[in-house]
């Protein structure tokens, strides 16, 4: 689903993430997630978009660490206590830059539709309506 390769998520690497609009996919490294219509061998936990990818990933990290930054999927990760099972060191992100917010939103919808068609449901942390 487009973009560059996955890389580990951590605060030290935030400076490498562009302050540009785009789509990001967060996965559980080296894990297969059972879905309705098969197994997600990439282990994608969520697909999101943002006008500033660096800020959005920072918000996700802060939310899963228990901070007050607004990120719904990060808060869900924390509330489900996935941080105890998965751990931040097991998370990876793949970025796909776009020219603007509108293109990021369109690309996110395309990625979510593709995922839902392939697996019969959205990634575990996503909560947008069905397509």
Strand content: 15-25%
* Proportion in helices: 25-40%
Tell me how many strands there are.
6
* Tally of DSSP helical segments: 4
How would you sum up this structure, described in words?
The protein is α+β, with helices and mostly antiparallel strands and 131 residues long. It has one domain: GIY-YIG endonuclease. It contains four helices and six strands, in the order βββββαααβα. It has helices at residues 53-64, 72-79, 82-85, 101-119, and strands at 7-8, 22-28, 33-35, 38-40, 44-50, 91-97. The strands form two sheets. Strands 1-6-2-5 form a four-stranded antiparallel β-sheet. The protein has a two-stranded antiparallel ribbon with strand order 3-4. Helix 1 (53-64) packs parallel to helix 2. The longest helix is centred in the last third of the chain and has 19 residues, at 101-119.
